[in-house]
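Researcher: Quick sanity check before group meeting.
Model: Go ahead. Protein one:
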Amino acid sequence: MKISSSVFASFCLMIEISGIALFLRGFFPAPIKSSFSSKTKLSDLPAEPLTGNNPNSSTILVPLFHRVVIVLIDALREDFVFGAKGRQYMPYTQHLVEWGSSHSFVAKARAPTVTMPRIKALTTGSIPGFIDVVMNLNSPVLLEDNLLWQAKAIGKRIIFYGDDTWIRLFPKHFMEYDGTTSFFVSDYTEVDNNVTRHLDSTLKRDDWDILILHYLGLDHIGHLSGPHSSLIGPKLLEMDDILRKIHSSLTSQETEGSLPNLLVLCGDHGMSETGSHGGSSDPEINTPLVLISSAFKRKVGMDNPGTVEQVDVLPTLALGLGLPISQNNVGCLISPVFEHTSLRDQLRFMHLNSFQLICLLKDSTPNFQKEEGYEQFHFAEKSHGNWIKLYLEGNTSEVLSNLGRKVLRQYVDALKALSSALSKQLGKYDMYSMIVGMVLVLQVLMALLLAMPEALSRGAEVEIPLTSSLLSLPFYMLWLLCCSIHVLVCTSAGSSCYLCNLSWIPALAAITTFSAMLCVLLSMAGRKLASGAKTGTKNVNGSGFSELDVLLLIGTLGNVISLGSSSFIEEEHQTWYFMINTLCLVIFQDVCCKYFRERRNSSDDDSYLASKQDLPSLLSPISEQGIGSHKWLALSTPLLTLACCRLLRSLNQTGVQWMHLPDLSHWLNRWEHKAELSLLSAASLLLIFFFVQKCCSLVSKIALALGLLGVYSYRAAVGNVLFPWQLGSRDISKGTVEARFVYIFILGILFTGSKDLLRSQVITADSRLKSRGLWEVYSGIVLLCALLFRPHNLPVLACSLLIQTTMAQYIWKELQYDAAQTTIMHYWFGQAFFYFQGNSNNIATVDISAGFVGLESYLAIPAIFLTAFSTYSGPLLWACHLVCYLSSAQDSWNPASVGHGCYCFALLRSIPTVVYIILVTALRYHLFIWSVFSPKLLYEAMHTLVTTVVCIFFTAMDQNHIGQS
């Protein structure tokens, strides 16, 4: 069966996406969870350890605090409380930290530093799985043992106001609640006002025990304008005033003889230097934790805050409220909080925490007896029993006190060892699903490599021996073997995986696909070997690996090999910047060879100009009269590209090592430089119109001009840039009307382009109409990018269009680069512009504010689409430009150019994806697997999905041309 290269490439990528999804399902483990279905009850708590038969050991758990108020400020960085900003903008909190009855700590969150996983960590004490970063957009009900369930079970009355993620996680736990969406990041006032408006009336009431307030405004300001925004100070002052009001109310309500109240100030995560979060940099993981209560001793001066884990909050609050510790907790007690209690109570609390961790260790670790913490616990428990015996006998000597403090230290050591052992076991990899997914993507890569000569031939068709393979005896034998292996794995003792939990229909479909792919590969390889044996060396010289193929493999593999290092992943942008600079220098050399050296023979031309022997010349020889200006423009194009790339490198610092250094975007986004940013944005929008409008119809040109004007109006409405006609001050709005105004023109341009494409396919085979339709669709995509880009990133879009225009006019056609070579260049430039935008392999650099442009409220599908589009706009723009360019070339000189481009795009994406999956599997126990390698894996998966969509569009354009032919 013969199919075109584009159809073959798209089909391969769709299978690859399935393999990647299966691999991700097995790679990202579920967090450690107890296998017990029931939740811990007070009756399940162990008694105090005791040596002998004295019946006076205690099983009762007495609460230490009457009321607890938890103020969780989203994206509250450590330095916002303990640093210079805290001293300036949170004076009351700073006074409590330095001189009040409080304990202050730096609580370290674990990656991923996004809201939903962090709420899980605070309420269950467990470390959520990394894949929770995806589930953050749609939080499911939390069914595992947690603090709120325990509180409700003993009759505690809970009130909640704030982020509605809590309501989705705990839908039946609050006696009163009011939620606000956390995803509409343009709003940083109403989201907090909706919480504070309940505060005065609630604090006066006495019908509640736990009050949880989750403020979102600070996080939204960070997403909009970063941690150094002028809006940060007023927001921190607002939070400080709220804390003062709560603390005063709690203190005034305490009476002599009653239990003290507790005020907890914390953050779910921090904020990076760009205002986002999700990664593992210090500003993202270091959050303040301040516990304020009259039970604590008043300070005489602030000490440096100690460091605790965020999961340590759960056991501390649970025992402070007289609740059992959740089953899945891996945190340790924050011992200073219990210093005001008796030594017996402190030992009791330590024993309960250690006992819970031992139960979880036994349930999750087969060889738990070999763990260091297991031995330490039993030793501490035995010493604790001896102490209880002496205590109950009435011993009051100094020996008893010294022994008690010694037992405390033993428990602390045991807790640290147990928590460390459990934290290292983030989960168990589903190796069966990982191996099947890995083999699927490896099969796709082998198929693409075996089909290379046919896919890049003049006919651009690939022979797939599908029918003969499916009707062969080896296929059925292989199918039966795979079914047997599947049954064996799924019925083996202790095996539990995703594939085994599927019903037989999808499982058989996966096995059939796996077996068919392998048989097709074997058939293609056998046919290739037989063909090579018959033709001998002539086939090698005629259709073997060309210089282009060698360049493709060396460039791609060089980048892929570097991904085996965590440092190269963190600084991958440097690799692509180097490759782009090298490419520009090679192009400059080719231009010099074309215009300053005499014509060489055909073999020299093949070496320097990379022209194909089986392709006709695109252009006739340039006359002597016209060669002058053309020559100098061609010579200046790679140099201009180098200059643009150097400018864009300085615009956004990315990666890890230099992320903290100031760049042009920081300078432009300062309030005092708003005029400069406004001029730069306006100039960039003018350049965008100049480069895009050339190939559009008159109607599309007008719509594009009005749309770009609307882009500037939107940014001025939200306060990013200035209106040139603005005389006085203007209130900042959400810019919803202006953004929707632009969306209308985007849809209009896309509709016009799609209409022209349909007319060129159905009514008339007009290549000019088809080309115009493609460029109009491309202009609509450019307008959408301009709307979603922040103002300081508009020069990235303008420079991208400048390079595309000059390269297309003076380089790719003039030097007669074929479709495959042009595809490589587009792919490399797309990768480089991904990083020029300020993106990295860290989730924290994803600009989620782009997902809410023009939206009044959170809508999942539009928000996800806009965020993904904004993030991958660089690769998408260059891929769309490639489709437009190759389609015009297809109509003029090479009918197979689109098929070649689609195939090369699929191969360029498949090689790094497959190799990286193998690397990640081998490095799954690496120290940086969750902080560095896992985010990159998600980026690779998403990039492959984007490439699949692009290749399907390639295929549609290719099939249109075939149909017209």
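Researcher: Fine. The other one?
Model: Protein two, sequence then structure:
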Amino acid sequence: MAQTKAVAKFWIATSKQIEHVLAHEKYVQATEPTKDSREAHRLVSRLYCRYVQLCRSLGQCFDQTLQVQKREIIQQLLQAANKRMLELGSMLKEVELSDFIYVDVALQELHLIPDDVQAVRPCYFPAVRPAHLQALLDAKRLQNFASGADCSTSDEESMSEESDSETASVPEVAKRPVMKRDRKNERLVGALRLILAHEKARQARVLRTNFRMHPDRYYPKPIEEELVDMRYDFFFRPGQQMLFPVKRTAFNWDFRMKQKDLGNYSYYRPPGYQEDTAPTVEREVVNVQPTQQRRRTDGSAALAEAEALRVVNEMEQRRLNRAAQIIQRCWRCYRTVKYQTRLRYERSQFLGLFDDMQPANVRPTIEVDRVRSLRSELKIEFDQRFLDAITDEKARILRTRGAAILEDITDFVRAWFRQWFDEAHSFDVIPEPFQGGTVLIVRGETLTPMEHLERQRLERLEKQKSPEQRKKEAEDKKAALEREKAKQREEKERLKELARQKRAREKKEGKTYDFTEPEFVSNAYLTLEETIPRYREDWQFVEELNNVGDLPIMEWITLEKFAEVHQELHGEVRELLMSERELLQRALCKDEKRKYKPPKAVRPPRTKKAPGKKRKEAAIDLTADRTEESLVDELVAKGVIKAYRKRTIDEFVGDLNYAAFEGRNLFGDRDPPPGLGEIRNVVRSFLYGMGPLEVPKPKSICFVGPPGYGKTLLLEAICHETGSVLFDLSVATCAPIPLDDMPGFLQLILKVARLMQPSVLAIEDVHRVFYKQVPAQEASQDPTKLGKYLLKWIVKQLRAEERILLVATTSQPWLAKVAALKKCFKQFVLIPRADYGSTVMLWQRALRRYTGVPRDFDLSALAIVTKGYAAGQILRCVRDVFGIRRRMQFGRRPLKVDEFLEHFLTQTPQPQYPISDKEYDRYTKWHRKVDVLAKKRTKMIRDQREQVAGQTKSKRK
């Protein structure tokens, strides 16, 4: 109940937030057109930040709302808000001429931080496909993608494997299958062995102590005689293989030693041991009967009893004192050590020597996430209940009101027959179903008898006209049509001329940003503006806070199903009354003694084709007679459908470039490189359309970067976050396919990809598919045969509404044909080099998984020295340095920065160095050739530099 009310209150606050955003939209639209790009950037960026916040709030409402009717409205609003956010992001990209946008001024005005405007994983990810298709995929044993390692491989190992696979120009031979280890069982067996070893050692130490303290009881015979009934079971023979790694205890078998005072060991009692001296006397004193005590009159017995009692009391008091001393000493030591540790921790934290690796109190956060996930999973159950309620309500209406509705419609249509007969002495034709059927009759939207008579009169007058009059009217009509077409052509030419003048003016004077143009006032904004008032009107009488059970509003379901039942019964009434109308018309013709003419069948209108476009012939489906399971089995057997590691985009570690805004706006002639963290925002913005919402997305993406920069990580993260099926179209997968069979092979892949949506078509090392010149060692594989058919059979066949994404990676793009690559891929993402902040985060991510690393380890100096190294190199370095032996030495040999640097410099056959500026410039120059925004920005920076140089030169003169 509390959760439902909290969600309802949050939705009320979010609806008010929508109104504030729309009010700000109207304020921006009322702004005068401007040519200042900075002013336009400021207005749009503020609106963009507000929409990012709105999308996050609507996403939480959509995820936690269980009431189906309200969730439908929230889904419409979320879809429109996401569209609008992406539109504003595209506007900012056009203003900044870059895929990476910076909104620092808007953040300062709205009192936000950069994380508040970062794209997050939508709540509707991963997408859910039909149950039978998901079961079909789960039943298959898929091969692993991008490596032969197990899918449970850690992120660091997989990143290093990626870099290894990227450096190889030819794909490696398939590795042996790796048996999956049962790590849980191994941990249990190891724990059991450890417990057994320590228990055996403890028993051995107890027995040894018993032998030393009580040799007469535990070893009554002399040493020279044979050992009989010895209770010590733990033995060891030199050279014997042990079953368990037991902790060794040194034993001394010479038990002939001095008799020790038992008083020193009064706190210890061996198991099953009973003393003969003092305890026996005590028991005799306690158990002695009064008659026996009176019989003992000897004074020596009384003295012995008194002495025994005194010894026992002293031993007991000494034992208690010693136990109290031990407890106090241990407690004081523990308290002192804990206090000193706390002081040292607080002092180091105050000095900023380290950051907390984990939050201090994570239990509330974990509990909140658990409750949210459980509530989100209940949506399927509520959807099923809603569908059951709809079915039951429709059945109830048909059962209780169906006959009455059918009779009412029939009576109304028969009354319509009577009206036509009385006024026009005829019976009109009942409209066809595609025209509306009997619904038009009930609504009164059909032709009236008086209009029918007027039409007949006009037809008679038309027949009485002479041929000259008809010819003149036809010429006048034709001339009017020509004038209308000429007017439309003039208007079209005028708009073209205005657009041409606008482009020329923008080229000469700069672009003018007009916020009232249609490109700014989009359909997404209009949807938001229309949906909220409609929600207010429909839900104003609904008490949302009182609906604690999230029950559907049955009144709306009843009205909707009532209209649906009406529509279905109208069809039955039409079929029933068509024959009745025919009988009436026949009888009328017979009475008037004229020939009966049956009405002409009306065909549905054909859809008009777009002018100038020829009809494309559909490709012949060669797999039309095959089942879904057989298609999937074939692709699994060929290694096209593969498994991938469960990774997220957040695992792409990197920081933002916080100085990029100043570099662009204060120093306009600079182009600061983006940070690694901004790649996450760009990639997530491409994925909004992979869910159930109708949000625009690109058809294809290509990741460009040196080896080890995380391209395969991003590819697998896209698949995992969207819940997509991975189709591997790399050269190694397509090599066994003959060239003539490639169109059918790609047609099969596209058909299964549409069936299993969402789907990702992956091509690693895509430069091999578009080689300029095929290397001799790869000529046998014919790597370019996929590139000949990729554009026609994959890219052009993809539709905007399909949840299919083509993703490629390349580390040597200059080896490919630029024109062919640009036609197949619309987005090219160049992964930047790691700066200082990103390098610190990479080292933190790599070192935090090891518990022995000190928190105050000097990461700053290490990051400065290793700035520019690839993420795969850093993760592999940590994995190689932190072997088992080195981790065991953490306690006595502290970790030093030199160890990591020595690992980089002592690699064979040559030391590892970060990529040089000259090598990375090769990637940036190629990226400027294929990316439209990068090309425009390069030209703008060059023009600005030339203008500044010209001004400086004129001042010197």
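Researcher: One line on it for the slide.
Model: The beta strands are 143-144, 641-643, 700-704, 725-728, 759-764, 804-810, 827-830.
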